[in-house]
Amino acid sequence: IIYSYANVGFWLAGLLAEEIAGKPYADVVKERVLKPLGMVRGTFRPTEAMTWPFAVGHDPEGRAPAKVVRPLGDNAAAWPAGQLFTTANEFARWGIAFMDGGKLEGSQALSPYVITQLSTPHVPIPGDASHYGYGLKISKHDGLTWLSHSGSRLGYGSQIRMCPEKKFAVIILCNKTAANLPRVADKAAELVLGVAPEPTEPRAPLPMTLEEMQRYAGQYSSGLSRFELTIKDGKFIASPGGEVTKVGDNRFTCGATEDGPTTTFQLVPGADGHPAFLVRKGRALKRL
């Protein structure tokens, strides 16, 4: 058993909310979360968001020239996994209430029970000292507990980091695929709290023997997602991704290009010491 992030889990949770409330998910959230928090512009419906000043989404991910996304994604089934259109100021109201036991401007806007469930560590994250709650990553840094989540969808990226002990939060919303400006969030925490950024892991290439490559090679799968590691002409190759570089204990990178991002992944060994899972972007793919 291993933790693996799955958008479909949020889809199902949203469907359950619809079935219980007897109304669309967007209306359930608006009535139970957005209105009590005074988030008057918050909406899951693009056609409603467009009636306010609106940041149009851009693609692609990485450093290639940005292009407007046309048409804008609009699949209501996927809304629970991340399609809330809002502003940083309105989102801050959610963060303030969350860090004050659900209270905002003297009113109990959110349930304390829900906040506790969201921020309680429920499962360890592979290869990380952090845990996952319900929709939030829980980690320790510089003696402080941090709650966070980043978002990525076609045309947009975001992140929120909260430190309830210090009543401090950083909210970043971007209108480019997967953009979330982590160094900006680091700097904000450093300026306000004096918390230095976590040290970057060294990425110097490490040698790999043929025996190692043979031990790692194989097909890894989760649903429709596939990732294959093979050996070709003495090189370790990922498909998709290209040539693989080892950068740490069971940690690897591949796919660095001028226009696209580097893919980082790790292999999680099973009881026999051989890789049982490949983890990338929070998703665990089982070795076939």
Question: Could you characterize what this model shows?
Answer:
The chain is an alpha+beta fold and 288 residues long. Helix content is 23%, strand content 31%. The chain is built from seven helices and 18 strands. It has helices at residues 7-21, 25-34, 46-49, 88-98, 112-119, 182-193, 210-216; strands spanning 58-59, 67-68, 103-104, 107-108, 123-124, 131-132, 137-141, 144-153, 156-163, 168-174, 218-222, 225-232, 235-239, 242-248, 251-254, 263-269, 275-280, 283-287. The strands form four sheets. The chain has an eight-stranded antiparallel β-barrel. Strands 5-6-7-8-9-10 form a six-stranded antiparallel beta sheet, sandwiched between helices. The longest helix is centred in the N-terminal third of the chain and has 15 residues, at 7-21. The mean pLDDT is 92.
